[in-house]
Amino acid sequence: MFQLDLKSGVPISDQIVNGFIKLTALGILSGGEKMPSVRSLASQFSVNPNTVQKAYTLLEQNGIIYSVKGKGSFVSDDEHSHKAIIDGATKEFCRAVRTAHQLGLTKDDLIKCIEREADV
Fold it and tell me: What does the DSSP assignment read for 72-100?
């Protein structure tokens, strides 16, 4: 699973969304796999079930998971899910680049960082 950082300033629901997106992107969660119930995940993370429900709603709106009435939520296994993961990663990366640039990193600094981290 993944950890929540209650001191990060990132909303808990967003951390849950990002955690499941990462697990899906890494292949730890596969298409068709059942998601934990809202109550069990809320209990595991010691958070309000409404927070987990909000995260599940966001995941469903983005095509990462789907719900079956009376059965629960499941990881999507279609191309739309993969595109949503790539779009989310791109958005997060661009936000990080923008923040780093605002904090004084130059374009060359950013390129060196990308080359180092991506083994290019």
Answer: EEEE--SHHHHHHHHHHHHHHHHHHHHHH
Q: How far apart are the first and last CA of the chain?
A: 29
DSSP structure class, residue 29: S
Contacts of 53 (CB under 8 A, 6+ apart): 38
Which stretch of DSSP H or E encloses residue 117?
helix 107-118
Q: What is the C-alpha to C-alpha distance for residues 12 and 16, in angstroms, rounded to an integer?
A: 6
Please name which of 44, 45, 58 lies closest in space to residue 4, comparing C-alpha atoms. 45
Query: What is the Cα–Cα distance from 59 to 65, expressed in whole angstroms?
Result: 6
The pLDDT tens digits for 28-41 are 988 899 999 999 99
Name all domains of the chain by residue range, CATH numbers in brackets.
12-117 (1.10.10.10)
